[in-house]
Amino acid sequence: MLELENLNAGYGPSQVLFDLTMNVKEKEIVSIIGRNGVGKTSTLKAVMGLIHRISGSIRFDSAEISQSPTYKRGRLGIAYVPDDRGIFVNITTAENLRIPLIGHKAEKKKDNLDLVFNLFPILKERWNQKAGTLSGGEQQMLTIARGLVVRPKLMMLDEISEGLAPEVIMNCCSAFHKLKSETAILIAEQDVRVALEISDRVYVMLNGSIAFHGTVAQVKEEQAIEKYIHL
Amino acid sequence: MQTQSLKQNNCPNAPLKGERRVEGGKKGMEERLFAERPRFHFLIGYAVLAFVFLGLPFLTTYDVLVEDIIIWSLFTMGFNLAFGFTGMVSLGHGVFFGVSAFTIGILTVHWNRSMVTIPIGIAAGTLTGFVVGYISLKRARVDVHKALRIAYLVLISIAASYVTMYIFLSPLAKYSGAEMGLLGFPNHPMGVVGDLKIDLKSRVQIYLIVGGVSLIVIGWLHRIASSPAGLIMRAVRENEIRVGFLGYNTFRFKLLVYTLTAFVASVAGALYLLRSGFISVDVFDFSFTSELVVICLLGGRNAFFGPMVGTAIFLILKDVISAYTASWGLFLAVVLIGSVLYLPNGLGPMFFLLPRIIFERLKTKRGLLSMGRNR
Amino acid sequence: MHLLIITQIISGLVSGVLLTLIAIGIALTFGLLKVVNLSHGAIYTLGAYIGFTTYKICGNFWVAMALGAIIAGIVGVIFERVCIRKVYEYPVMGFLITFALMMGLTQTIRLIWGPGNQLAPQPAYLMKVVYLGFVPISSYRLFTVLVGAVIMVAMWFLISKTNIGLIVRASLDNRDMVDSFGINSSRIFTFVFGLGSAIAGICGVLASPIFGLFPDVGGQMLILCFVVVVMGGLGSIRGAMLAGPIIGIVISLTTLISAGFSYAVIFILMAIILLTKPMGFFGDKL
């Protein structure tokens, strides 16, 4: 479903991704792990078109999207949940959830919201509050909800373990497993245990490229963590 | 940058003809290379500059234009240290220019005919610059978005220009001549020390003073710009927060640079008054300073001598085009737009690439220039 | 004496409303595009002159206002698409290019209409004097305030109640995220910019009898608008709505002493605000 091939990208003159090749298929959960600064967030941003692409191809549903502007990629069914949460702080929770619906012209679909409320009931309580007044954990929930509310084909999450209580993370994990038949998931994760717990396949990144990839079992066998992540 | 190109050309690992393969020897040679070539470069440049500043006015009928270019080059190059290098967009420098000139003028007319008024005027201008800079920069803290910081600077400098204009128009009208400008600046010789006087009517004396002072101040500014301070200025423009992390008090640094440019503006104002014998409140208007901005952009914000190129182009064009049409401003606007969109580094750098190209040609003809010398 | 002061206050309110409307365009542009749009004043001038010429041709004030708004809006959109959006997030360049656009437009206006003062159009049926209690006020000024109020209400409605308004408010917080949700934020910004320009255009036609009609009128008014925007908070519309009338009243009262004095007072006021509460009344952390 998502294919990156020899992707080179960076921030202005500073290149962070070097010949990156990876893919995410339907009905699976893939995670990218690696040390800090290795390029996990940048990979997700590159897929979204938020950083400068130098060369290489990005394909979604077999269509080349590397030349498309960000908003077109969003409309194709890619949802992005950034590590800084990207919450619109001055508008309410309700309005935050309406924005993606506007973008996908799906405002009338009430059942999308039901999914969100089942997963994160507290958002109902905070419905009319300004999103900036929510606690960190609640904001994290809101941003995941925003990603889910349009039933994307691919959801990309950056560091979801940060700021969430372990029990909530487990809720999310089981929810993701239930969702993966309709939403493929790509996670960039700092916390290796969470990543291994959730995913089907894992990519280990080092210095802007893939150092190792395989199933969770393979990762444990070949001791990829020790090789590429531990100091 | 010069050291790097040296390294590329020198192939330090290959045996050079006649060189003794001794570590000390090679290092000593490299030291001498680094020391000599830059100086050579600068000397030629300065010689040309000195000729232009001191000699050119006497050699052409366009002497007023050349003088204007000299004074404005000084003004803009100083201004560019704040604007181009450090990224402080201020529209207030006309104020400092004017305060200095007016102070000198008013004091000379009403009080004392000697040259002591000049340092007083320059000090007044610099002090005004310090105050305006302090107010503008105090709020431009690093935690505020960059666009906001620049907006503050611009707005406060505009405010200062309006307030000053008002001050000189109303309460001080009696002295400043209000809309008509300062009248009565005497043509009498200005006393220097004892019996030594500057004859304000003598072309020779005025031009030598203007050219000489400009040359000295520009030389000093160049030294500053080429020093680590110049690097810090550019760093502040790129990423002020990081510079703060390195341990610099960016507020003080920016204020220092700003005051320095106010000083240069004051000197330019003094020179202008000496040369023209006249100053009006028009200089306080921010459109006066915005011309400086245009010049810096045209000539190149990043190059030290860029504004000089820009000044020359600007003043010459202004002269030429104004003779044909009244819409000089429209032409300028179009040029400016094109400049921002396509030539953000201005025309200056292209100008300066020329000597370097010639230099490289010379070098390859004579073999490694420096090697030839060391024989 | 009291009467003089009251009439000045009222006239200050009127100018204040006009200033607010124009300032809203600047505030929005700054909030969305992070660019201080100096050409906004020139767009105001353009609208004023278009209205002037239209009124001379057809004698209908409403048509003049409409045409002023439309052409100003179009020129605004052209400016935004060709130049301004390219300098997003480069504040120095934004300042410079909008400065150049302002200069270019003002010079063009000067070329077309001449550098002198023009008599601003004012329909005869509005040249009466109306009495609010014992205070005389020109019916034209009343008309201006009414139109201004209508526009402000419409803007408020647009921003708070519509989807477009929601997108604008979200973009003020985080533009990238708006894009990633499939919304073409650039198109929305262009629309908002064009709207702001159109409003400036209408204000141009409306305000010419009050502020005057000459090529540099936009520049002078721009300065005042900046004070309004700074006082209200860069990027805040509510702030501009509050600050506009205040500034208008301050100016009209201090003009009784002298024009230069009123400018000086305004700027000292702005400097004080910048020093003490730089975010203005309602500005948020930007």
SSE topology:
The complex is a heterotrimer of chains A (231), B (375) and C (286).
Chain A: E1 2-11, E2 14-24, E3 29-33, H1 40-48, E4 52-60, E5 63-64, H2 70-75, E6 78-81, H3 93-103, H4 111-119, H5 122-125, H6 136-148, E7 154-158, H7 166-179, E8 184-189, H8 192-198, E9 201-206, E10 209-215, H9 216-222, H10 224-229
Parallel strand pairs in A: 3-8, 3-9, 6-7, 7-8
Antiparallel strand pairs in A: 1-2, 1-4, 4-5, 9-10
Helix pairs in contact in A: 3-6
Chain B: H1 2-10, H2 23-59, H3 63-85, H4 93-110, H5 117-138, H6 146-169, H7 173-176, E1 190-191, E2 197-198, H8 203-226, H9 228-238, H10 240-245, H11 250-276, H12 286-299, H13 306-324, H14 328-342, H15 348-365, H16 369-374
Antiparallel strand pairs in B: 1-2
Helix pairs in contact in B: 2-3, 2-8, 3-8, 3-9, 3-11, 3-12, 3-13, 4-5, 4-6, 4-11, 5-6, 5-11, 8-11, 12-13
Chain C: H1 2-33, H2 40-58, H3 61-82, H4 91-113, E1 129-132, E2 135-138, H5 139-161, H6 163-173, H7 175-180, H8 185-211, H9 217-232, H10 237-254, H11 259-276
Antiparallel strand pairs in C: 1-2
Helix pairs in contact in C: 1-5, 1-8, 1-9, 1-10, 2-3, 2-4, 2-8, 2-9, 3-8, 5-6, 5-8, 6-8, 9-10, 9-11, 10-11
Summarize the structure.
The complex is a heterotrimer of chains A (231), B (375) and C (286). Chain A has 231 residues and is an alpha/beta fold.
Oligomer: heterotrimer
Helix content of chain C: over 70%
Query: In total, how many domains does the architecture of chain A comprise?
Result: 2
**Number of E-state strands of chain C:** 2
Largest interface in this structure: B-C, 42 and 44 residues
Number of domains of chain C: 1
Question: How can the largest sheet of chain A be summarized?
Answer: 6 strands, mixed
Distance between the termini of chain A: 34 Å
Low-pLDDT windows of residues of chain A: none
- Portion of residues in helices of chain A? 25-40%
Instruction: Give the biggest sheet of chain C.
Output: 2 strands, antiparallel
Widest beta sheet: strand line-up of chain A: 6-7-8-3-9-10
Order of helices and strands of chain C: HHHHEEHHHHHHH
Radius of gyration of chain C: 18 Å
Shape of chain A: globular
The number of helical elements of chain A comes to 10
* SS strand fraction of chain C: under 5%
> Briefly, what CATH class of the largest domain in chain A?
Alpha Beta
